[in-house]
Amino acid sequence: xxxxxxxxxxxxxxxxxxxxxxxxxxxxxxxxxxxxxxxxxxxxxxxxxxxxxxxxxxxxxxxxxxxxxxxxxxxxxxxxxxxxxxxxxxxxxxxxxxxxxxxxxxxxxxxxxxxxxxxxxxxxxxxxxxxxxxxx
Length: 136
Fold this sequence. Notes:
The protein has about 140 residues and is an alpha+beta fold. The protein has helices at about 1-20, 35-40; strands spanning about 40-50, 55-60, 65, 75, 85, 95-100, 105-115, 120, 130-135. It has one domain (about 30-135): Lipocalin (Beta Barrel), CATH 2.40.128.280.
């Protein structure tokens, strides 16, 4: 019995530390069994934007963004050649790169929430938030 107790206390402490460190994004989730990439790969529908003053603008599903497993991006159901997505090195930002004839144009968005069916992004330049839901 003492051996079981000696082994279980460190295991519980380690699990508590792991769970406490899982919440990377400000609005959640605290923990997920799916990888960040697994949650990000989806067809997202813009539901609303919130500007830095708190003004909310709702959308009726006219704007979609599909992020593929291979890093491709498609907007509004069409293809977007030479456009890719990836995470920043710390996986706290979504980085979208447009390759043009004059060079790359890169946009980075802070990830506030990344759930299976919900994605919140924030433009760090003006504070505008974009709230997406899955298109399913």
